[in-house]
Amino acid sequence: MTSCHHLHLPSRRDALLGAGALFAWTQMPRLARAEGRDPRLLVIVLRGGLDGLGAVAPVGDPDWVGLRGDRALLLDGKPPALPLDGFFALNPAMPNLHRLFTARQASIVHATATPYRERSHFDGQDVLESGFARPGSVDSGWLNRALLALASDGRVDPAGSRAIGVGAVTPLVVRGKAPVMSWVPQQLLPASEDTQARLLDLYQHTDPKLADALATRIRLAALGRAGGVGTTIQDPATLPPPGIERVRAYFADAAGTAGRFLARPDGPRVGAMGFAGWDTHINEGAAAGQLANLLGALDGALAAVEKSMGEAWRETVVAVVTEFGRTARINGTDGTDHGTGTVAFLAGGALRGGRMVADWPGLKTAQLFEGRDLKPTIDLRSVFKGLLRDHLRVDEKALADTVFPGSADVVPAAGLVG
Amino acid sequence: MYAPQPAILRESAMSNPAAAEAVLALNRFGLGPRPGSIAAIAGDPRGALLAELDRPPASLAGAAALPSSAKAYRAVTDANARRAAKAKIAVRVQKEARQKLAADASAMMESSEQADNAMAAKVAAEAVPDPGRPIYLEEAKVRTEAALGAGIGFVERLVWFWSNHFCISANAVQSMSGAYEREAIRPHVLGRFTDMLLSAEGHPAMLIFLDNLGSMGANSIAGINRTRGLNENLAREILELHTLGVRSGYGQDDVIGFANVLTGWTLLPPGDNPEHGGEFSFNPRLHEPGPQKVLGKTYDDETVEQGRAVLRDLSTQPATATHVATKLARHFVADTPPAPLVERMAKTFRDSDGDLKEVARTMISSDESWTQPAGKLKRPGEWGVGMVRATGITKVDPVRFTGGQALLGEPLWRPSAPKGFPDDEASWIGGMGLRLDIANNFAERVAATVDPQDIIETVYGGAVSSEAMAAVGRAETRQQALALLFMSAEFQRR
Questions:
Q1: Domain presence at residue A330
Q2: Is B480's Cβ below 8 Å from some Cβ in A?
Q3: Which residue in B has a C-alpha nearest to residue A121's C-alpha?
Q4: B359: nearest Cα among B162, B200, B202, B199
Q5: Ramachandran assignment for A348, one of left (phi > 0), alpha (psi -120 to 50 degrees), beta (any other)
Q6: Which of A26, A34, A155, A348 has its CA 20 to 30 A from that of A247?
């Protein structure tokens, strides 16, 4: 089945382009100001490879339940998935995103991917963030080069950082010649449940004593979460993984602070941050469990941005993207392995939201990429290019030449904002 | 780019067993491999360790700018005095204002008076910063960077060992804690144990830490005039911790005799002279007169030499040789060190009159030091420095670094008791979860510039288990790959 939800809507931008492309090329920032706008863009990179099908399920696809079995999100599941457009439904861990979608302040792109077709996290992230079609270019990111293109004469005022990177390491997507301010959250990001599990696995194969020590710590953390003396001991299977509260707090703290910076009249206008932990090879869960916990933390982060931005939210787009998706089918350890097509979340008051953007490829084996992954039908660069063109007013030629080099054939997705 | 290649790498490690021995040498006796160190010593790791003993690193870089312990101490006492004066003035001003107010309006809130005074004093006092902490941090930076920059780090490890053996606590003397190590420990780690013992026990930091400043003989001039007396703490800990070892044959009479001997070992009080104060001083007015008996021997001399004679004798006791050899072997080789190794090191100690370079040489030259499996769990500070060294970073932010060490339970120069930090796995293995958080945080900060595969292949020469290589290769981010590598048994054990 192919169901085309890919919408092309006319925007003010189309008229502007027709009227004064050359003018726009040299006077980009003034152009946005002349429109009475002061647009903001925040990019959140989910490192590890988000399972797009576990986050946004094609409940209307006849092959969906057969593919994921009892791990298929369903509209009548427990808990039920949140309906989006009749064909797709959202993981119930994301009520905030669902509220924004309903309020036409969020859109979701599905079956999308960067041009990268291998399955290395690091190379995949390099492609996603550098904006180059192939890995290996790690000097600058597309968001930084978009800022350079926005500078009216190609120079950027070094005194005024227009970009912010959140985290101890500035994400590649925002690194480059345009000055970047960095902000490190107060809270230490704890080692993720996934990292703990991997280390425990390594210890179990190499050092039983260290394995015991680490396992004890993990158990204690779980007990601490279960509550103090006098509370009912919960069924261990229903306990959230240890540390998820801290992850939740970190996501919200980091994203909320990014929002506060972007909201300031004299603050940066674009920002980037990364959240790790999405490499769900083992015990991924579905409507509950590891992935749902992370999606819940991400949902909280989106709410934190919305809240911290105040009035500026209506001029904001938050793009949540990942290096690749995961296998369409569940693997042998109740998780999913590295795949290709996945989802991207867009949220913000500047969006013409409430829509699913997808050219659905189907889930039959023959329709899957290499017989295993959701086939990407939308180049993620077209989404970025559409946002940069219509929201920040980056010139289309710069988008094709310097921001996403060699992407002239990737048409900017129209109608996402406005 | 990061596809795991365990089979190939394992082969390269096996085809290069020298790399494995070099890694063991660097971890067990040094501060861990850093870029280039495997290549530098792989030809002859044991020889390289012995060579470092003969050609110890030049004096501590950056130490010239650090204040002596006495000067640091004076800076703090001076600040304390100024702070007290500021607080007094603030209270005086507050009172005058209140009296003026009372003259104007008879109604006054009596109850808040004390609180106001205390607040005014506190605010005024806080205007005088404590110089102790910046001195401590600068000392920590110099020491840690010496460890990060050391070729092998064997001599630095010896400094760390002896500093912990003769520990003081920065909780008692923050300003002096780094200078103590530079003045009393570092110059003697390749010298004679006797000299280190004399310089440690006579250092003002030790006399402060183990409560000897006010210890006075009951029959001393001061003791008679002030009807005060002995504090046994220093004497007992020297016998129990620094020399003979617990249950080695001394009794309470020996502790008392020795404590009497040590009366008068104090420091020159600061305040009278801006150029002096905070140095060691022997005050005869505090000293118990007459001969004293320690371990069956009578010491007649009634000056500072009485104490020095006792210390010299203690330093050459066979029990001291065994105690020191056991602790050294336990620290470097194994929680339960091989008995023949301990005995050989003790014999060297006895035969060489406590020549610590010879004892270290015996340890390196003994096969038992090399045949023990790499099962010793690194202490937190050692592990943290090893992790940073592997990345090639040589500069530290002392606030961050000391904060991390404190979080891991080994705050620099702040052991919770005179016994120092423990040296066994059971004491430290519970902290693995915290180590993971630290490793994860450090990995996040360096992930943009540090390649985990490069650490495995070049810094560690491929001498990493295939399981660890596979875990690193499969990691979802460079940060995770680095965190897993830093937490692997190869980084934790030696």
A1: yes
A2: yes
A3: B476
A4: B162
A5: left
A6: A348
| Tokens of residue B132, six digits | 């102790």
Distance CA B489, CA B485 (A): 9
Omega before B35 cis (within 30°)?
A: no
- The residue type at B92: R
CB-CB neighbors (< 8 A) of A199 in chain B? 436, 471, 483-484, 487
Task: Mark yes or no for CB contact A120/B1 under 8 Å.
Answer: yes
What is the least distance, in Å, from the CA of B476 to any CA of chain A? 5
Q: What is the C-alpha to C-alpha distance for residues A16 and A41, in angstroms, rounded to an integer?
A: 20
- State whether B492 and A210 contact (CB < 8 Å): yes
CATH of the domain at A306: 3.40.720
Token pair recorded at residue A293: 């916990």
Place of tokens 């597309």: A142
Residue A220 lies in a domain: no
Q: What is the largest CA-CA distance in chain A?
A: 71
Q: Tell me whether B243 touches chain A (CB under 8 Å).
A: no
Q: Are B169 and B209 in contact (CB under 8 A)?
A: yes
Residue A391 domain-assigned (yes or no): yes
Around B146, how many Cα atoms within 13 Å sit in the side-chain half-sphere?
A: 23
Give the domain range for residue A67: 12-185+269-403
Report the distance separating Cα A82 and Cα A157, nearest Å.
Answer: 45
ipTM surpasses cut 0.95: no
Size of interface A-B (CB pairs under 8 A): 106
Using CB atoms, pick whichever of B447, B468, B478 lies closest to residue A206.
B468
In-domain check, residue A229: no
**Is B488's CB within 8 Å of A202's CB?**
yes
Number of domain units in chain A: 1
The tokens for A103 are 């309020």
> What pLDDT tens digit does each residue of chain B (494 aa) get?
333 333 333 344 444 678 899 999 999 999 999 999 999 998 999 999 999 999 887 678 888 899 999 999 999 999 999 988 988 888 888 888 888 887 776 554 555 677 777 777 777 777 788 899 999 999 999 999 999 999 999 999 999 999 999 999 998 899 999 999 999 999 999 999 999 999 999 999 999 999 899 899 999 999 999 877 888 889 989 999 999 998 888 998 999 999 999 999 999 999 888 889 999 999 999 999 999 999 999 999 889 999 999 999 999 999 999 999 999 999 999 999 999 999 999 999 999 999 999 999 999 999 999 999 999 999 999 999 999 999 999 999 998 899 888 888 899 999 878 889 989 888 888 788 889 989 998 998 899 899 999 999 999 999 999 999 999 999 989 999 999 999 999 999 99
Q: Which residue of B has its CA nearest to A220?
A: B433
**B60/B57 Cα distance (integer angstroms):** 8
What distance separates the 2 farthest-apart alpha carbons in chain B?
A: 93
Secondary structure (3-state) at B372: coil
Q: Using a CB cutoff of 8 Å and minimum separation of 24, what contacts does B229-238 make?
A: B230/B256, B230/B259, B230/B260, B230/B263, B230/B288, B231/B259, B232/B256, B232/B259, B234/B201, B234/B206, B234/B207, B234/B210, B234/B259, B234/B262, B234/B265, B235/B259, B235/B261, B235/B262, B237/B210, B237/B418, B238/B197, B238/B201, B238/B311, B238/B314
CA B424 from chain centre, in angstroms, equals: 16
A276 and B479: CB-CB below 8 Å?
Answer: yes
